[in-house]
Design goal:
By secondary structure, the chain is mainly alpha-helical. It contains two helices and no strands. The longest helix is centred in the middle third of the chain and has 18 residues, at about 15-35.
Length: about 70
């Protein structure tokens, strides 16, 4: 394996709050050029999705990530 020519910068780390703030800003800028809600209203997998997510078509976006919720 050939060594990478890219330089890594381990001293540049982000906290979770910094990442979330950056993501919020990217989403805000994206909403300036595209519609905010781009989810389909219906798809061929609706039955499976609604069964999996308790009547919804997918997980709520504003809910914090909780991997243990998938185990329940």
């Amino acid at each position: 394996m050939t060594p990478s020519k890219l330089k890594a910068s381990p001293e540049r780390t982000w906290t979770w709050d910094q990442w979330q703030a950056g993501r919020a800003e990217r989403r805000r800028l994206g909403n300036l050029v595209a519609p905010k809600n781009i989810r389909r209203t219906k798809s061929e997998r609706d039955e499976y999705l609604r069964e999996t997510y308790g009547g919804e078509r997918g997980p709520r976006f504003n809910k914090p990530f909780d991997p243990s919720a998938d185990e329940a």
